[in-house]
Amino acid sequence: MKIAYLSTFYPFRGGIAQFNARLFYALSKYAEVVAYTFKRQYPKLLFPGETQYIKPEDNPEIVESISILDTINPISYLTTASVIKKFNPDIVVTKYWMPFFAPSLGTVLKRLKHSAFCISILDNVNPHEKFPFARQLNKFFLKQNHSFIVMSNKVQNDLIQIVPEANFSNIPHPLYDNFGSKIDKNQALEILGLPKDRKILLFFGFIREYKGLDLLLETLAILPEEYYLVIAGESYTSFDKYNEQIEKLNLRERVKLFVRYIADNEVPLFFSSADVCVLPYKSATQSGIVGIAYHFDMPVIATRVGGLHEMIEPYGSGLIVEKAVPEMLAESILKFFSLPVENFKKGVAKYKSIANWDYLASKIIEEYNYFKSKKTKSNF
Questions:
Q1: Predicted confidence band at 57 (pLDDT cuts at 50, 70, 90)?
Q2: What are the residue boundaries of the structural domains of the chain, listed by start?
Q3: Matching CATH topology for 2-174+356-379 and 185-352?
């Protein structure tokens, strides 16, 4: 069996590339897999971070890939489809998270779907921020696929609204298991320069408006002095407003900032030093941050938006805040620290037992076999 995996791979960095690397190696147990990635993922004008590319100190998981697709060069769409077609794959896997990628990925799949089984893993259908012609672009891309993997009911419902007849499987987001092991908490605190006598909350990942960091800072101002916040991640918007908020709320001595890209080998430090990971999101689908937290046996407190509660409530692996408001978030944080942490860790272990990369890979193969049983390859 041959699988073409078209998405973001090394030398690009970030959660999408990390997801793809883990799934690539899981799929490789079942088939010959070739990774195809972008020559240009985002034009510089559209990328809000420092860089799209891995730096030497990032210590990434490397996947050998063919750089071929340019998102803003239509000629490359045709070239990419032609190169993949010569590989003659049985399955084409893509990952989709925003309408910007619909023209490039959708055009490639349109030229491949008559000879290969096309399945897309949907992080989002509707984008977190407004995007022109989002529905039309989403519909174009979605129509080029035979099946989908979704990881939350929110994404499932968004998919069905656009393509009511869509074939899909809904499975838990796998845990990120590529960051190494947890280390001694006191050692992590010392390395990061964090106090050892505080209750430490962790806000981790790219900082974007919808992730609600402003709400968490307001929440911290309500909480007693013993609560301390670590903010770790590159800001995809100006951080000035958060700095101003920290000053206004007199939180400078209760917040530690690591506002930069966090390299893979640094991740254990943050998840070993904190007591709980907080996701005060204003909107969401599912979250890879939950998957990282669970890998390190860390419970999560999150708002009831998108599919976040689906990764937490059924397992008892954290607490859900009913509304994204500081008072309710503060109440949940206080409640968390009043309960035995071992109860939450048992819930994390329950999630870990079913959310893994091999299960996701086997599900993709299962979807292909089911489709193949109904149609011959020449009659896709």
A1: low
A2: 2-174+356-379, 185-352
A3: yes
